[in-house]
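Onboarding guide, step 5: your first structure request.
Type a short instruction followed by the sequence, for example:

Predict the 3D structure of this protein.
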Amino acid sequence: TRLPQGDLAIWQDREQKKQLQIETAKKIVEERRSRGPDMTTYAGPQSWAALTKLDIRCGRIMECGRVPDADSLYLLKIDIGEAQPRQVVSSLVKHYTEEELKDRQVVVYCNIKPGKMRGFESQAMVLAATQDKGAEHERCELLTPPKGCKEGTRVQSGAIQVGSASEGVSTKNISKVWGQVQPLLQMNDKKEATFKGTTWTFPEGAITSGLTGCGIY
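The system replies with structure tokens like these:
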């Protein structure tokens, strides 16, 4: 059945309006994506309080090997200044060889909620500057402590010691705390790790990486 001419015109007009609304919504989404996260969402003092709950330290990779039947995963043992090293599963195969990782100092997020990957428990996370995260051409460079830094030393962010309030903090909901902090972690143009523009340091100097202008994960 054919619609009468008047009804057809009304239907076409409605369809055009719907299509216009869809295209407008797509443009808004793309524009927001290109701008990245809205930093004002995280800019309050609560983000600094959250930072003190995250236990982030200097560590050293003592052992490195491939996870069986996993193309992208390493199994690491990392000294973070405790009696026993932490076991960490990390997807660094694309970016580093085993030789490059062994005996390397790194920055470690220590009080994550432990989880299993390919049957191996991961008890911490190494932090890295990452450009185009998740893309085929992703670039990833580990954060590097200054020379002479001792394993177990906590990060300093200006006057704030990162992790100063982490004792006794439950790891059950620690991902929400990390979610307040991570969007504000960036590499500056001096290749220094920063939180809200404040450089991360150890007593020996700034924490660095080979990348600029990207997030830290």
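Each response can be followed by summary notes, for example: The helical segments are 5-35, 45-51, 98-101, 174-181.
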